[in-house]
From TrEMBL:
Pfam families: SBP_bac_3 (PF00497). Residues 29-248 form the Solute-binding protein family 3/N-terminal domain. This is Extracellular solute-binding protein, family 3. Keywords: Signal. It comes from the Bacteria.
Length: 267
């Protein structure tokens, strides 16, 4: 008969392993998504979401690691549990398997079009060639706008998918490959400035969006994410993020704790 290890040794080993895992830094991955997360000219990881998380991590007992990776690799690490969190937008499908931080900031999607032929009303997007990065929440938002307009009896848009979400679609817009580019307002403004494109008109979708840190349920503890969210709320209440928002000229999310349960936010 093979001797088994005493029960107290098994329990001790389990506690040691659990304690080690709990003491690990919180690893957050992101991808190139300027000005929210990106690598600057000095090869430093920066962006407003990075700075918000980095400040919170200063007060998090175990600290954090923030790593910028290619988009596909960042998602793989997140989905496989090699990273605890990933900056992302909220949607119903993700909420089935993901807990979220409190909303970190509010932004919006909109249409950039040439100043010489601007789209100044949402109805003017009907029947036009509209570029968008996909698959993404951005594309889903655009499809919903298109469906709403079709229900009103307007012609559908011709949606042109881009596999890139950086400067490439704006270069295509500049060459008149499509009539407008639907994108996050801040992302479009960042890359337009980077390319020196000053002849663009911006039309808001009128629908605010929020960005979070997502945490896969099967790779994280509910109480850990809840504690991290309480820390974030405390820092917001103490105006610790004010300088960051002023620097990046963005605004915090106005969503209240009463809305957190519907968003799968442990709190």
């Amino acid at each position: 008969m093979v001797n088994s290890a005493p029960l107290y040794l098994i329990l001790l080993f389990t506690c040691l392993i659990s304690g080690y895992l709990a003491a690990q830094p919180l690893k957050i991955v992101c991808h190139e998504f300027a000005p929210f997360s990106y690598q600057d000219q000095q090869q430093n990881i920066t962006g407003i979401l990075v700075e918000i998380a980095r400040l919170a991590c200063q007060d998090w007992p175990q600290g954090c690691e923030i790593e910028l990776l290619p988009n596909k690799r960042a998602k793989q690490q997140f989905n496989q549990g090699l990273a605890h969190g990933h900056f992302q937008g909220w949607n119903e499908e993700r909420a089935l398997t993901t807990w979220f931080s409190i909303p970190l900031l509010q932004t919006e999607y909109g249409f950039y079009s040439p100043l010489a032929q601007p789209l100044t009303d949402l109805k003017q997007t009907s029947g036009k060639n509209i570029g968008a990065f996909g698959p993404s929440n951005t594309l889903t938002s655009l499809i919903n706008i298109d469906r709403q307009q079709v229900r009103l009896g307007l012609p559908p848009m011709e949606i042109i998918l881009s596999s890139s979400g950086d400067e490439q679609p704006l270069k295509m817009l500049h060459k008149r490959r499509f009539d407008a580019y639907y994108v996050n307002k801040e992302v479009g403004a960042y890359y337009a400035k980077h390319l020196g494109l000053n002849d663009l008109y911006y039309l808001s979708s009128g629908q605010p969006i929020h960005y979070f840190i997502g945490f896969k349920m099967k790779h994280n503890e509910y109480e850990t994410i809840k504690a991290f969210n309480h820390l974030l709320v405390k820092l917001y209440q103490n105006h610790r993020f004010d300088e960051i928002f002023a620097k990046w000229k963005m605004i915090p999310s106005p969503l209240l704790p009463t809305e957190f349960p519907d968003l799968n936010v442990p709190y």
